[in-house]
Design a protein that fits this description.
With 644 residues, the protein is of the alpha+beta class. Helix content is 37%, strand content 19%. A hairpin with a 6-residue loop joins β1 and β2 (12-15). The structure holds adenosine-5'-diphosphate. Adenosine-5'-diphosphate (ADP) is lined by residues 41, 45-46, 49, 87, 89-92, 100-101, 106, 134-136, 180, 270.
Length: 644
Amino acid sequence: MQREEAVDENIEKFEFQSEAKQVLELMIHSVYSNPDIFLRELISNASDAIDKLRIEGLRDDRLSGLAKDGKITVTVDRESRTITVSDNGIGMSRDELVSYLGTIAKSGTKEFVRAVQEAATSGNADLIGQFGIGFYSSFIVADKVTVLTKRAAGDEAWMWDSSGDGTYTVEPCERDAYGTDVVLHVKERPDDADGEAEGAKDYLTGWTVREVIKRYSDFVSYPIYVDDTGKEKKEGAKPEPVNSMKALWVRPESEVTEDEYKDFYRHVTHDWDDPMERIVYKAEGTTEFHALLYVPSRPPVDLFYREGRHGIQLYIRRVFIMNDCRDLIPEYLRFVKGVVDSEDLSLNVSRELLQQDRRTAMIKNSVTRKVLDVLKKMRDDRLDDFRKFWTLFGVVLKEGIISDPKNREALMKLCLLETSDGGRVSLDEYVSSMKPGQKDIFYLSGGTSETLSASPKLEAFRKRGVPVLLLSDPVDELWVPTAGKFADHDFVSISSEDVEIPGEDESQDRESAKKAEESGIASKLKEAVSKLGGSASGIEDVRLSSRLVDSPATFVQKGEPVSLQMKRLFKSLGQEIPSDKRVLEINPSHPLIEKIAQKSDEIDSDGLKEWAVLLIGLASIADGEPVENSKEFTKTLACLLEKA
Ligand code: ADP
């Protein structure tokens, strides 16, 4: 934002950050199919502000107890054409006002802008109505917005003012108590003039405002009052909140509508898509709690940031305690959003006390089991939905196989893994489709899905109809060795040197294998390899292969692979990363190898070195890896072609 000097020295004028400008433009000019959402967004902000005051009150004595009487008031003034949403929450300091209401921190904004633009050009206005974009949605109905605010325990009050034209002003003002008023100067409706209101709602009546609040914000846990200034009030009548404040999560599922659940999801997550899955759960017994949890239909942008907003909201006996509580749900379920409301925990719990309380661990266990049960049910009953879930969150779920031994089995059963046949299978399906005599679960890892599926190591497995799991997520290289086995079947990497391929392949060319053996080509090449420099690093042996069908050569692993963690460890210590010990396997039935074998007696040691360089290069390329000494490789290749 840019600051400009204004005429009155108390008034500072600023320019909106460019993304904020874009959103504002859209708010002002788009035809919103559902303008009601502005009120939902402002009430949500007001409720968040009271939550924040409660949270800060736990740490700061000056603020403790202030949020006890949190309330929200919506004042409708037909005369001055204003709707004011007031709260007694945390309020904003001058700097906060400038940074929160002049910029857009939300990471989904770009996506939002794009979606709205698309919706506008395709004429699909309905789509626009689903989105909420917080404070800026005020400009759907207002042509000028004024914010008056005072930070709790602060001395100064500030006024923010904008007509949505790219700039806003900030100046000191008067406000007795802490909290915030957002004053919307409501636009004239296009039909106001001729009085034939069609479609467009008149928000300047208490009735409409009440209806909108009831519809979208009924569950908000602070009372919302509507003050209809134009209306006469009965003497001594006590104002009644418009919202029931009934916590959705304690109501029986049958009494809550789908829309109420969806609105609550938006309230908690600020995500404008509908959730993929809802989990309503009541735990009874040693520890009692209610949970209302959601699986989003797209991954939150901060899914892989350690500092991201992970965790769920904690309530204790219907009182909001904290956001993003990480102690109630394991890391690998960090995409789950929602609320846990405990009956047993003490109201003045802090994050530290919470960590030490054994009831916290009990809630976490119980929540974890419930979420995994729901996912299992989804897999059993709605496989298509589960597949979608898996493509979005499977990679996160796999972390649990490493970190949560108690649920390892359950998590492994949920995995949908790619196979060399194409498609994805569960481990149970893999096991039940194993070939007679097959004891192990074969897998190939350490590449992209494409390079793995093109690997020459799969050739003999494919030929004999033995499926191999293709594990292309980096986390696969950690969980597979950690788990070691599934249902008594070992995981065996098909790139290890001594893998036994089940079944016989009658078509295997024994004749050429015998000839190759007699020629001693493998040991001759081994000798040549040992005389090579860099490009042959880590190659300990050259052998005749039984796993190749169409390719001339491949590399296999000798002994234990150097794990990713080890490599990272060496890297972080600034040491040279130990290279894997490899064996170059050559295919005795391949015409190229046959030819070299036949002529091996005539080829001198320099000639053998050239063939070794070529085969090492070909094996690297086939394995989807870079050729280590590409200059030497291309030179040799050109030279051999020339001779041919
Ligand atoms: P969001 O609420 O999704 O973060 P908004 O654009 O609605 O985005 O609001 C931006 C920020 O402005 C909020 O995160 C909050 O810090 C601040 N804010 C908005 N309304 C209020 C309010 N009534 N009281 C205190 N702070 C508020």
